[in-house]
TrEMBL record:
This is Antitoxin SocA-like Panacea domain-containing protein. InterPro entries: SocA_Panacea. It holds the Pfam family SocA_Panacea. Residues 40-144 form the Antitoxin SocA-like Panacea domain. It comes from the Bacteria.
Length: 203
């Protein structure tokens, strides 16, 4: 599958932001393997909505047994040499499952708030293992669990009847019975409308 076909999943701005986010993390988080990357991408997306009321990347996360997953990034990181993210990262060595930066971090896609948020995530994750991060994304009150319950697939995921689904994480569940300020929900709804418009343009 070539990069041009795969790129239809994202805008170029999204690819640049995903790639540079991984570069930023790779410079400060040890043993950055596929599982860590996938977990961290979700953690920062969720944290951005909680803190600022809008998406960090504006992409879908599928509901899989292993957690909230960006399907195309999972596939890309499964190759010996990534295709979609080839410009940004590479395997540390032939026998390593860890990824390192393929170039320097470019902050063109990032606001001051974005950088602040990435630093907060690094402080949270720098000493955590990949399994620790997966456990965090699947904690009892997590969006992964709430979304799995909403779609009726929690038991199937937990008992290995399903490894993956096409369902996406419902970030609006963050605002159900929540003490989060109403203005964040309003920002989130505006953000959702903008994302739907972008998706429509890509069809």
């Amino acid at each position: 599958m070539n990069a041009d076909i795969r790129n239809k999943a994202f805008t170029q701005d999204q690819i640049n932001k995903i790639g540079n986010t991984i570069i930023y993390f790779s410079n400060k988080i040890p043993d950055l393997n596929r599982t860590k990357i996938l977990s961290l991408l979700f953690i920062i997306e969720e944290a951005c909505i909680k803190k600022f009321g809008h998406h960090f990347f504006g992409i879908d996360f599928q509901l899989w047994k292993s957690g909230p997953i960006i399907k195309d990034i999972f596939i890309d990181l499964s190759y010996e040499t990534p295709i979609l993210l080839n410009e940004f990262i590479k395997q540390e060595s032939e026998h390593s499952s860890n990824f390192i930066a393929n170039k320097t971090f470019n902050n063109d896609e990032f606001s001051d708030n974005d950088i602040e948020l990435m630093d907060l995530i690094i402080n949270f994750a720098s000493e955590k293992s990949a399994s620790n991060l997966v456990d965090h994304t699947q904690s009892p009150h997590s969006l992964w669990r709430k979304s799995a319950i909403q779609y009726g697939v929690l038991e199937s995921l937990e008992t290995d009847l399903l490894n993956s689904t096409e369902y996406t994480i419902d970030f609006s569940l963050l605002f159900d019975n929540s003490s989060m300020p109403s203005y964040l929900k309003e920002r989130f709804e505006e953000s959702k409308e903008n994302l739907e418009f972008v998706k429509h343009l890509k069809r």
